[in-house]
Fold each of these.
Amino acid sequence: MINIKINELRVGNYAGIASSLDFKIGTVTAISKKRLLLEIDNTVYSSSNCKIVPLETTSDRLIDLGFKKQKALNFIPCYVIKSKKEGIFFTIYEHEVGVYTVHANNFDIKCNYIHQLQNIFFFSTGEELVFSSTEL
């Protein structure tokens, strides 16, 4: 079962498996029209028999992806990351608790889930956002 839009995903995106006892985070390794595969701790899970869900964007996850928390001029909390490519900065504003907007290359895009942020960053820079801690 998939609770995530397959057409928003690409190989390398982060997603989760939700069960009544646990929540685990993994990496998408394959995508087809009817299912996707997610690898967690060297085990591959299929959406045919697991509930695969998107990861909500949270301040802890943003920091773990390398963003730095700052305050914008209007005192709205924001998170900034600099691409390895010169001059490309991404700013994510937290307008309300849990409501994030990505500011990239002069566009504002609502970003509810980590895979959306990964895709925006990748398509703009060619670089991957990677969790720095034991989040996976």
Amino acid sequence: MLANKKRQKIIGMLFCFFILIVIFIWYNNGRKLVKSHSIGYAIIEKCEWVSRATARYVVSGRFKLGNTEYHTSCQLSCNSLKLAKLKTELIGLKVPVVYYPEDPSINYLLIENKDYAFYKVPIHDSLKWVDSFVRCQ
């Protein structure tokens, strides 16, 4: 009985340690991207519903650097968006992506104006309609 409680305690501590490592890696990658990034262009390939309760969508695509192709994505959250309309309007669209030059797998797809502002990337006139399309009214 006592050995079982010890085992549960150790498993719980290992789980917490694992979660802390994941959070640290996520935070560190985000800091790298903000400090130093380059801009590329990705083609949006997929729009998926992640959660009906929170009306979250993931928009994902690919971009190419040299001979290597990278996956990129971002999340959108809005109750008034409809998945079919989102797919119709966004799939095939070419949009900017910011990536960390030393490791392009650390990247973020720019869809909303707030993302452009956060990464200090100018938004092209031909893409200004996208923010008004995905923004909650």
